Amino acid sequence: MDNKAIAKAFKKCSQLMELHNDNPFRTKAMASASFKIDKLPFAAASATEAELSEQPGIGKGTAEKIHALLTTGSFPELDALLAKTPEGIVEMLAIKGLGPKKVLIIWNELGIETVGELYYACNENRLVEAKGFGMKTQEDIKKAIEFSMASQGWFLYAKSEPFATRLLSHCEAQFPSPAKFAFTGDYRRKMEVLNQVDYLSTVAIDALTEFIPSLDYISDHVLEDSCLVAHDDLGFTYRFHFTTVDQFAKSLLLTTGSAAHIEQLQNIQNPIPEGDSEEAIYAALGLAYIEPELREGLDEIALAKAHKLPALITFADLKGSLHNHSTYSDGVHSLKEMARYCKEELGLAYFGICDHSKTAVYANGL
Fold it and tell me: N or C: which end of the chain has fewer CB within 10 A?
């Protein structure tokens, strides 16, 4: 379990404490602990209770809760609050614009205990009957529920990247060469939003099915359409496709491109030819190599035939970083550390600071 998952559990606990009118000082302390854990400069799972308790804003009690969360998946205070809270009420707390105070009114005054009931109440204009809810608030909540339902299970590429890389590293360490692993699908094409991260593997499906559940951040797994599908404790979905070593290049090509891209390749030659590499397969089709990010079924085939494919932006093209927070507000590294890292390690030409101002009291603003 990583720091974000731990912080998420503490945030949920603070919301439930506020929902049940717990001591406001204890509630605020729990919310503050969530913020501090998320900003820790090291993995909480790798630290001892003593090391955690030495961190500013953590303390002995919070360190004990973190340890319990890492060993059992929860801690007593959270369990007690969840036990007396309907599951639907807990789900409501995740809806944008619905804080504990509003959820409590919906629960107590309207007797609504599920997101579905709440959506139905919005459609019937019943939410405006509750204190503090007007037509605009009702409409905003309805839109938030619709957005939540539509986007459930979708993540930004940038958010998924560290977790996708972590799982790939663990698989490669467990099954070294000659076994092969690679990202594929929407993730390899670097789509902005994803509902899953796809991998291609030459490891036997039985061996991988035995290994994946042993990772402490994997919550469940299932075999589905000859693929292994797993979920982690943050809700990310990982899908493993299987192939043989001699078919790896072709399988990678077929599972990477969009349906429209693969159809356009098949219009040139069907079945798509074999090859030792993707470059060789594209060459056999009379095409320049098409980078994964371009395989969307647009005009990349025509450009590849004419050898006019665009050069993609790489990290080397980036000259600086503008939006950064330091320890002067809520960052985890000092101004000096970040400036030297940007100059000496990343080779950047400029570095901008955007620390919070005093109005952001929650972030210890300047």
Answer: C
Q: Are 339 and 305 in contact (CB under 8 A)?
A: no
Per cent of the chain over pLDDT 90 is 70
Categorise residue 185: left if φ over 0, alpha if ψ from -120 to 50, beta otherwise: left
Contact present, 75 and 68 (Cβ < 8 Å): yes
d(CA 330, CA 315): 26
pLDDT tens-digit readout, 215-229: 989 989 999 989 999
Place of tokens 């993540």: 155
Sign, Cα dihedral of 353, 354, 359, 362: negative
Residue 229, classified by CB atoms within 10 Å of its CB into exposed (0-12), middle (13-18) or buried (19+), is middle
Whole-number Å distance between alpha carbons of 239 and 254: 15
pTM over 0.85, yes/no:
no
List the strands of the sheet with 197-201, edge to edge.
181-184, 197-201, 237-242, 227-232, 218-224
- Distance between CA 102 and CA 317 in Å, rounded? 47
